[in-house]
TrEMBL record:
<comment type="similarity">
    <text>Belongs to the CLPTM1 family.</text>
</comment>
<dbReference type="InterPro" id="IPR008429">
    <property type="entry name" value="CLPTM1"/>
</dbReference>
<dbReference type="GO" id="GO:0012505">
    <property type="term" value="C:endomembrane system"/>
</dbReference>
<dbReference type="Pfam" id="PF05602">
    <property type="entry name" value="CLPTM1"/>
</dbReference>
<keyword id="KW-0472">Membrane</keyword>
<keyword id="KW-1133">Transmembrane helix</keyword>
<feature type="region of interest" description="Disordered">
    <location>
        <begin position="1"/>
        <end position="31"/>
    </location>
</feature>
<feature type="compositionally biased region" description="Low complexity">
    <location>
        <begin position="19"/>
        <end position="31"/>
    </location>
</feature>
<protein>
    <recommendedName>
        <fullName>Cleft lip and palate associated transmembrane protein</fullName>
    </recommendedName>
</protein>
<keyword id="KW-0812">Transmembrane</keyword>
<dbReference type="GO" id="GO:0016020">
    <property type="term" value="C:membrane"/>
</dbReference>
<feature type="compositionally biased region" description="Gly residues">
    <location>
        <begin position="7"/>
        <end position="18"/>
    </location>
</feature>
């Protein structure tokens, strides 16, 4: 009878091990879910801090820099046109000044260029029209025309300047001065004439007439900042 008792005892031990395995699996499964939840929370917190945290202001000096190095050669084009917007780079008649190899912000005789010319205005310009100077600079060897295949936006810049200034037309002064040695009768007559002229001027006053005045000189200066 001893062997059956031993066999029964062995069977009881095997049943206990089978009962512990599901518990271990449940514990491992719960631990894995905990780790996954922590990872999800960490990822959510990371993206939330990126999108909703206040952004630090960027130093403007880090965003602005010179396109050209000091002393780098530049070419210049100056076009005269009656249109404020200019894109007629192929019109040789509009190109009145072209210079090459101008050292960038190198102040000296080699960087100073001058030109004197005679400009014959059109009939439209004579009739109170407008005239603009379109100045373009580009790194030597690069064109200012955006339609040119070799055009580089970071290698050129330009500016438009009005050559004509509009000012109100001066009015003639019809009043007479009462200063000076005059007789009493003449003074009274002059006062009456001044009063009449003032009334006439008040009646004739209308909207101001604006006249175009030419600027005889154009000065082009390059402004640089290497203070970073």
């Amino acid at each position: 009878m001893a062997p059956p008792a031993a066999a029964g005892g062995g069977g009881g031990g095997g049943g206990g091990e089978e009962g512990q395995q599901p518990r271990q699996q449940q514990q491992q499964h719960g631990f894995g879910q905990t780790i996954t939840g922590i990872i999800r929370i960490a990822v959510f917190w990371y993206f939330a801090s990126k999108f909703f945290s206040p952004k630090k202001p960027t130093d403007p000096s880090n965003l602005i820099s010179n396109l050209f190095q000091k002393g780098e050669p530049l070419d210049m084009w100056l076009y005269l046109s009656e249109h404020e917007k200019f894109n007629d780079f192929g019109n040789e008649a509009s190109l009145v000044w072209h210079e090459t190899n101008i050292p960038y912000v190198t102040w000296g005789p080699e960087s100073t260029r001058t030109l004197s010319l005679k400009y014959y205005p059109s009939q439209a310009l004579k009739n109170n029209g407008s005239l603009y100077a379109h100045v373009f600079f580009a790194r030597s060897g690069y064109p200012p025309d955006p339609n040119d295949p070799e055009f580089q936006p970071q290698a050129t810049f330009g500016r438009t300047h009005s050559v004509v200034a509009y000012l109100p037309k001066s009015r003639s002064d019809k009043r007479k001065s009462l200063l000076g040695n005059t007789k009493e009768g003449e003074a009274v007559e002059s006062v009456a004439m001044v009063a009449d002229d003032a009334e006439t001027d008040s009646k004739d006053d209308g909207p101001d007439e604006w006249i175009a005045y030419w600027k005889p000189n154009i000065t082009i200066n390059l402004v640089e900042d290497f203070t970073q």
